[in-house]
Design goal:
alpha+beta; Beta-lactamase; 5-stranded antiparallel sheet; 4-stranded antiparallel sheet; 12 helices; 15 strands
């Protein structure tokens, strides 16, 4: 099931009709970039696709070096590994491990520098769900139980009638959605091929025509379209773009070190489900912001219980994991994770206050061998940091 979900997310990005707009029409599908195209493109997505900027503020949240750094070693598949050998073997451009808000490990590969951004792929989903929390705290979204149609009225009279914001965040709307990429008539293929209509978002139009398959809240169904839909919902609720809102609620008050880049869809709307670009340390700050309970500058940005609820299993995801929260995964390790294809992740162990970030350019979007190798590294890094 995890492989299917990963492939679905990958193909949503790289199908014949892309959900983002290449600046050069000859740009190949992102699924089939060469290693050099990955290395160049992942750190400069704004040069490949149309994008907006999430502006940083004037202060930077400090991430001081811990007095003692870690150098984990581990065994995997009968071979001894170090951080350097793992990074070289799996095209890893950055690794960051924080404990109690301090850096215990930071390394770069593939010629990447600390100031270089790297694309998030689906890690952006977790930022989008966080912005829902901010909008609730601001009173712009009434509550998690508010109807989705209150904020996207074009969905009234559709399969989304009666679906709540919470159910959308759990990927459990009950609306029928097919992510079969063998079939060119699947929803995820067809939803990106619709003609643009003035004043309308073609994704919303397409999804308003989908039928109900299950009662809302009863069935997890990974839906690429619905994650982008949540970005539109947030923007409508707060009356500004999600880039502006992310800058106002997280980047400026929490103190990110760099502007972020957020790729847009054909309608010019930032994709709620994909493709932000952050520096390695800013990925760590996103994790730390959640671990700190959604506070910034002495102010509660998110509802007081939001970060616990969002990162606690809310529904069974059909995998061997503990479940799914609000665009966060719950692996069996007890951590919670934001994940993106090709090797992007933020893994947090709440009780130990340990955050592990990986950025990579895997040779394939997903795969059990790739995930297991990363899990082995994460486990070793966690154990080393915990004993530090």
């Amino acid at each position: 099931m995890r492989m299917v979900i990963g492939l679905a997310a990958a193909l949503a990005l790289g199908g014949a009709a892309q959900a983002q707009v290449p600046l050069d029409p000859k740009t190949p599908s992102i699924l089939f970039w060469t290693p050099q195209q990955q290395s160049d493109g992942y750190r400069a997505m704004e040069k490949v696709y149309k994008a907006e900027t999430v502006k940083r503020g004037t202060k930077v949240h400090p991430l001081p070096l811990a007095a003692k750094q870690i150098a984990p070693t581990w065994e995997h598949e009968g071979k001894a590994w170090t951080v350097d050998s793992y990074m070289a073997a799996y095209n890893v451009s950055g690794i960051l491990v924080l404990k109690d808000g301090k850096i215990v490990l930071e390394k770069y590969g593939m010629g990447r520098r600390p100031q270089d951004r790297w694309t998030s792929f689906s890690v952006a989903k977790s930022v989008t769900s966080t912005l829902v929390g901010a909008a609730i705290q601001d009173g712009k979204i009434k509550s998690l139980s508010a109807p989705v149609t209150d904020y996207i009225p074009e969905l009234k009279g559709s399969g989304y009638d009666g679906v709540t914001v919470r159910q959308l965040l759990m990927m459990s709307s009950g609306v029928k959605w097919n992510e079969d990429y063998v079939d060119p008539n699947s929803d995820v293929s067809r939803s990106t091929t619709l003609p643009m209509e003035p004043g309308k978002n073609s994704l919303v139009t397409y999804m308003s025509r989908l039928p109900r398959a299950h009662p809302p809240g009863t069935m997890f169904n990974y839906s690429t379209g619905e994650t982008d839909l949540v970005g539109i919902l947030v923007s409508n609720a707060v009356g500004k773009s999600v880039s502006e809102y992310a800058s106002e609620k997280i980047w400026k008050p929490y103190g990110m070190d760099s502007d972020a880049i957020w790729v847009t869809d054909p309608a010019g709307h930032e994709r709620g489900g994909c493709c932000m670009s952050l520096t390695l340390r800013d990925y760590g700050r996103v994790g730390q912001f959640i671990l700190d309970g959604g506070k910034a500058g002495g102010k509660q940005i998110l509802p007081p219980t939001w970060t616990i609820e969002a990162t606690t299993p809310q529904i069974t995801s059909g995998t061997r994991e503990r479940g799914y929260g609000y665009f966060w995964w719950m692996p069996d390790s007890g951590a919670y994770e934001a994940r993106g294809i090709f090797g992007q992740s933020i893994t947090t162990y709440r009780d130990d206050r340990i955050i592990i970030v990986t950025n990579a350019a895997w040779p394939r979007a997903t795969g059990r061998d790739l995930s297991m190798a990363r899990n082995a590294f994460i486990k070793a890094a966690y154990e080393a940091a915990k004993g530090n």
